[in-house]
Amino acid sequence: MKIYLNNPKESWVVDRFRSEWYQDNKDISTKSILMADIIWLIAPWTWKKISLKNLSKKKVVCTIHHIDFDKFDSKEEKTFYERDKYVDIYHAISPKTAEQIKKLTNKTIFTLPFWVNQNLWFEIKDKKKIRNKYNFKENDYLIGSFQRDTEGHDLSSPKLSKGPDLFVSAVLKFYEKNQNIKVVLSGKRRQYIMNELKSHNIPFSYFDMIDFVSLNELYNCLDLYIVSSRVEGGPQAILECGINKTPIISTDVGVASMILSPESIVKSNDFDRAIPNTHISNENSLKYTIPDWYKSYREIFSNLL
Prior knowledge:
Shape: globular
Strand content: 5-15%
Distance between the termini: 8 Å
């Protein structure tokens, strides 16, 4: 059995998953599509880069991260069904995504969250030293968000599926009770939240596209990480916070209910009532570390042939 993963080359989380898979599963992986028995469309939006001849001849596994039905127009629907002709089995990264896929196809779906790399994401005990490195004050209450929040077409409109308006609303609620709050942002397309924070005079620090070492350090600086999304497949930040014991609260999206304690999941957008539980999130995240979690994927792939 040899597996070929398509390559998005977008400097996004999927690029990292692809790299980690190839590094740790050399015995069943190939970068030559001609040598492959299975094509894994880990980045489904790039499927047209693969010839229809290869898609027709090989077993095809297609990962669906999430479906935003508010944006699922006729063009998106057409693309889904064009690709569906060549897909043998779908991979959903959360039960919620699986339910979305069921609305569109009768093909087999398996549900497996992506793994979390404990060598990248881990707890750092000396919080004071890390905070000093990034010029945070001892009494700063740091709230983090490392996910895109702005649409790419104009770099100003909110990407509503990510809930940046809900994030800002949550920060304002917290700020009413604690003026020591400072928001920590990283990643691309953060313009909407930054503009909103400026308009409300909420202090923030922005660390563009930093490396994984620095991002793990930023996680370890935080007093709270907020996932405010309306639609998600993961997000991977939930597992990353869980594995490095960063306090986190989240809307009930993606893998949130699999990783977080019920008290940490936001109900009716009452972010100030949710309570982070790092013990539960850490305990659950440990189930998905590498290399052990690869075994679940390898078993699915082996049963395809």
